[in-house]
Amino acid sequence: MGVKVDIKNEMIRMAKRAKRASEELARLSTPVKNSILKNMARGILKRKKEILRANERDIKLAKKKGLSKALIDRLTLTLLRIRNMAKSLREVASLPDPVGRIMRTTRRPNGLVIKKVRVPIGVIAMIYEARPNVTVEASGLAFKSGNAIILKGGSEAQNSNLIITKILNGTKGLPENAIQLIGTTSRKAVKELLRLDDYIDLVIPRGGEGLIQMVRRESTIPVIAHAKGLCHTYVDRDANLDMAEEIVYNAKVQRPGVCNALETLLVHKDIAKKFLPRIIERLKEAGVEVRGCPKTKRIISQIKRANEIDWQTEYLNLVLSIKVVKGLAEALNHISRYGSGHSEAIITRNKRAAERFLKEVDASAVFVNASTRLNDGGEFGLGAEIGISTQKLHARGPMGLEELTTYKYLVYGKGQVRE
Amino acid sequence: MGVKVDIKNEMIRMAKRAKRASEELARLSTPVKNSILKNMARGILKRKKEILRANERDIKLAKKKGLSKALIDRLTLTLLRIRNMAKSLREVASLPDPVGRIMRTTRRPNGLVIKKVRVPIGVIAMIYEARPNVTVEASGLAFKSGNAIILKGGSEAQNSNLIITKILNGTKGLPENAIQLIGTTSRKAVKELLRLDDYIDLVIPRGGEGLIQMVRRESTIPVIAHAKGLCHTYVDRDANLDMAEEIVYNAKVQRPGVCNALETLLVHKDIAKKFLPRIIERLKEAGVEVRGCPKTKRIISQIKRANEIDWQTEYLNLVLSIKVVKGLAEALNHISRYGSGHSEAIITRNKRAAERFLKEVDASAVFVNASTRLNDGGEFGLGAEIGISTQKLHARGPMGLEELTTYKYLVYGKGQVRE
Known about the structure:
In chain A, the strands form four sheets. Chain A has a seven-stranded parallel sheet, with helices on both faces. The longest helix of chain A is centred in the N-terminal third of the chain and has 24 residues, at 2-25. With 419 residues, chain A is α/β, with parallel strands linked by helices. In chain A, helix 3 runs antiparallel to helix 7 (158-169). The first copy, chain A, contains 15 helices and 16 strands. Chain A folds into two domains: 2-227 and 390-411, Aldehyde Dehydrogenase, Chain A, domain 1; 231-374, 3-Layer(aba) Sandwich (Aldehyde Dehydrogenase, Chain A, domain 2). In chain A, a hairpin with a 5-residue loop joins strand 1 and strand 2 (113-120). Chains A and B meet through helix 9, helix 10, helix 15, strand 13 and strand 16 of A and helix 9, helix 10, helix 15, strand 13 and strand 16 of B. Strand 16 of chain A pairs parallel with strand 13 of chain B.
């Protein structure tokens, strides 16, 4: 009980500090913010050895706990990865500042002039997996967009995150408490935090379904979830099969552990006999385990059978499920039923099929003749991103600086009243 | 237990029906939607007597229960109010359709063409007070923006809402289940509904703080709250006092029961002696009860003392609290502490004071020399509104057709993959 009250009070104090910092942050000019970001990058590079030492402690503990190779890989920092952290801060410095941008100016018949102008959201809480680079990237993006941030990274990365946030906070000119890391690794702290809607304006959970569901259930603060990507690519009857092969291969193999990677391949029955042998052979060469529906197995028998669970699974790994479909309608149905609204693609030369697919698929990004891996802030020309929103409200798809702002209306009158 | 399971299943069935309807709605063309809206308006007018009869039953019950005069007034329909309902549907028909609008087209160096295009949100649940006109307006706006809507109006208006939604649903061409009213008045039904984030994309609660808090606590669906407006007007030392008088009078008296009406007046000490007597006299003539801080009472003694509770209260009535402040900084502090982020105004001829007020006040709309009553979709030129959002995410301030949409990215490739 006593401990619980302590944690609660600590979270309230932290949130109040963030709120005060956010007022200061909202007033910083763009050049000042950019110079602070560049100094953050310098600080990270200068103290890279300290970061590596802290990271080694995290890795040792993770190995002791027997965590998965994939998790340890995401947790591990190298000199190159630290240089990329610094680079990402400089990139954020070079991006245009959305704060203060006038989105629309209206002059009303009564003479009222109304400006809709971008302002920071205020205080953002971010809950994420054990990837120390996210600590840097999220801090940089939140700061540039004028927001205070409260970070809760995966407990496995706690030592790395502590030194990184210490370095960032040591940057000259950065308002106090602009970046705060939750010191405890307890879930209780997070649950208390999620009730503080008086001080915190937005929570971004990024991670597995369990985390997202917990945050949705517990939070009274608006949530923008960065949840799973169960992405499909449909190879239509009218596809260019060479192109289809390159796109499917890229979407599955180039980086299988991320949310915009391909998980289920849908293939039109009329081209299945021609297309499946070549793509399956190519994928197998790359170490991909292929699981197929009965029709797929009739063409290539030496593969595992895909079952209902497969259609529902985001493998995040070198596994691919394949289904042969009768046509576009069945592909759309399958995507509507199993897709997570993240990234979906069609490969076709048929304009009508492409237009129907674009119109009817409900996802953050719908691709024609391109890899789902391209659903990314950088690839879309939005600059760095804090993640890819799988929600429809406020931000959908890549969430960059602009999506970390809100707006207010500035109304200039000369005595106007409501008639 | 059995009843609870029944309600839960009923809500799931309703949400699934809405989801299916939303897919059909997303595909309707603008002319078809507009013609349906005009037919809805005709239906409302044609069956006005049935609406009035149902409404009389609601009013009788409300009077029996001893409900407040203000509530009964909001509940009551007249021929004029029914005509205004029909008019609002025709107005929505005349507004531009946001669905399908291209927000941005980008061509990337690799040749990818990316279109950011507006699409409906999907399924919206709206929980609101006993105002039958809101049933019509929310249905019209949701339909025009391509969304299915599930309505839960105040139980006092249930008979009126039943006949209104029946009439709307009788409109030829309207997809089945585009508009659904929760038949039961139980709060359990709402709580079950708020967990159905698999089918419902957005919940809009509109009403008192108790309702908003319940929805925030219970909902796993994203919420856009339409909560209270504790609005201030600050009369600066450099104000034109004639203008200040008109604006303050309008903001308080023109329609005191709404969220953008004035609740607390802040007056610069240097002009208090000159301004307070005239404005208080004028307000008293209009039947306003004035409560003042000690300094106000030193100037006009025959008023009630305002206490801490007054600064925190949204009266929604002919009551006004007044505080004399030392200057702009104290006014800003008071607003930061007690304001609800809805509508705030400064009356001044001093450009620097105005700019500081505009910059530092964190509210959906900040006014210079105008009445807070103008924070309204119609007045802002956005057309009809479903309400005024007091949240920062997705929609802030007046929430019209555009704010009832989201977007998706359509990506046109020629074989592009991620490098």
